[in-house]
Design a protein that fits this description.
- The longest helix has 19 residues, at about 265-285.
- Helix 1 packs across helix 2 (about 20-30), helix 1 packs across helix 3 (about 35-40) and helix 2 crosses helix 3 (about 35-40).
- The chain has a seven-stranded parallel sheet, sandwiched between helices.
- The chain has helices at about 5-15, 20-30, 35-40, 60-75, 130-135, 175-180, 200-215, 225-230, 245-255, 265-285, 295-310, and strands spanning about 50-55, 80-85, 110-115, 140-145, 165-170, 190, 230.
- With about 325 residues, it is of the alpha/beta class.
Length: about 325
């Protein structure tokens, strides 16, 4: 049973107190037993979780900034979890996307949090799921999750988000090569940002052609037709004819069931959470230096770690 301090913190989160949300997310990030206990007390939420991924320089933060403006115009509370590379010294986020979104700093309906990936694969912090649960309990209707980058390891976003948006820039040859390597199955929607630049329409056509080819082979998981999956967006001008309002309409239509997304891959999420938890525990268990046989060493190490897994209250 959580103590009175934990109950008070949970109550403040439910009331939408941003400081309480920040405090609880920090506890979750640090994998503190108190944070895990409070998470179990929180009521469930119904937020639409949107993963936003893409190669560096594609303009993910600019697109997210436009999404915030459009969603707030519809009176929806919006939270952003920006998962950045971690400092090797402090473990904190290096980039700090909040700097790019300062225009929303005084809006009580917007919450922006940078989270360090802390070396976790998959482009996500291991605490992302817990942070989403905190923000859902606080009443946020849409949670935008910006990942570290794009690549094979980005598959983890499927375990947390309802919909995944891949942002690309015109003539992003390397990004398209990454799609060919397997990331094509992850996004529900593709956004070619900076649509006013030369090559935007050619990039869109190349993506549509690739999606059509992949669909013929059964490799695309989205129910959308290939031509409808790829949007041209000018992120710098969210009110323009190619602004992000078209993307917002697609996202909200999915939320309302008109265009259902793939849904969260709960098995992938459980696997990612278990891997992260085991990895943290094994770092705390002294290695069996006196055992030469690697299999014997592995059994010894796991036996030492098992009590920590069986008792969630252990640090």
């Amino acid at each position: 049973m959580t103590g009175s301090g934990g109950t008070l913190l949970a109550d403040r989160v439910v009331e939408g107190d941003p400081r309480a949300c920040a405090r609880l997310i920090s506890l979750v990030e640090d994998d503190e037993p108190e944070g895990r206990r409070i998470l179990r007390e929180l009521p469930g939420g119904q937020a639409l979780r949107v993963g936003v991924t893409g190669p560096p320089g594609a303009g993910k933060s600019t697109v997210i900034d436009g999404l915030i403006r459009q969603l707030r115009a519809r009176e929806l509370k919006v939270a952003v979890l920006a998962v950045d590379p971690s400092s090797p010294f402090s473990g904190g986020a290096l980039l700090g996307d909040r700097i790019r979104m300062q225009g929303h700093a005084r809006d009580r309906g917007v919450y922006i949090r940078s989270m360090g990936s802390r070396g976790q694969l998959g482009g996500l912090s291991a605490a992302t799921e817990g942070a989403c649960r905190v923000l859902e309990a606080a009443g946020f209707g849409v949670i935008l999750i910006e990942t570290v980058g794009v690549g094979q390891s980005e598959m983890a976003i499927r375990g947390v988000a309802d919909l995944v948006v891949l942002v690309m820039h015109p003539e992003s040859g390397d990004g398209i090569q990454a799609l060919k390597a397997g990331i094509l199955e992850v996004p529900d929607l593709f956004v070619v940002n900076k649509a006013d630049l030369p090559g935007a329409r050619a990039t869109r056509q190349a993506l549509v052609a690739m999606l059509e080819e992949a669909a013929s082979l059964g490799h695309v998981m989205s129910p959308e037709a290939p031509d409808e999956q790829v949007l041209l967006v000018q992120g710098e001008d969210p009110e323009g004819p190619q602004g992000v309002q078209s993307l917002v309409e697609r996202l909200l239509a999915a939320r309302d069931g008109q265009r259902p997304g793939r849904g969260r891959d709960h098995l992938a999420l459980v696997r990612a959470l278990v891997e992260a938890r085991v990895g943290r525990i094994l770092k705390q268990v002294p290695p069996p230096a006196d055992l030469i046989d690697p299999w014997a060493a592995a059994r010894h190490w796991l036996a030492a770690a098992l009590p920590h897994l069986e008792d969630p209250g252990r640090p």
